[in-house]
Design a protein that fits this description.
Elements lengths: L14 E5 L9 E6 L2 E5 L4 H25 L3
Antiparallel strand pairs: 1-2, 2-3
């Protein structure tokens, strides 16, 4: 397994998982979900952290909007 060299855009990322080193994986990575594929990124790279932050903010906004819809506001 190796990290992508291509920087991803937040709009293309649907979500991510954090992978830590364990018995079957030899690298820590952020696994970004891009539609039908997965891309591993270096968790220490600034662009990786920016994309994670962007995805987290988008999730938060979506959750808040869903809360307003459920409450009838």
């Amino acid at each position: 397994m190796k990290y992508t060299k291509r920087k991803l855009h937040c709009k293309a990322v649907r979500g991510y998982n954090i992978q830590t080193i364990n018995g079957s994986c030899d690298i820590s990575a952020i696994i970004f979900h891009l539609g039908g594929k997965f891309v591993c990124a270096d968790p220490l790279k600034p662009w990786t952290m920016r994309v994670m932050k962007c995805v987290n903010e988008r999730r938060k906004r979506n959750a808040e909007q869903m809360g307003h819809l459920k409450n009838g506001h």
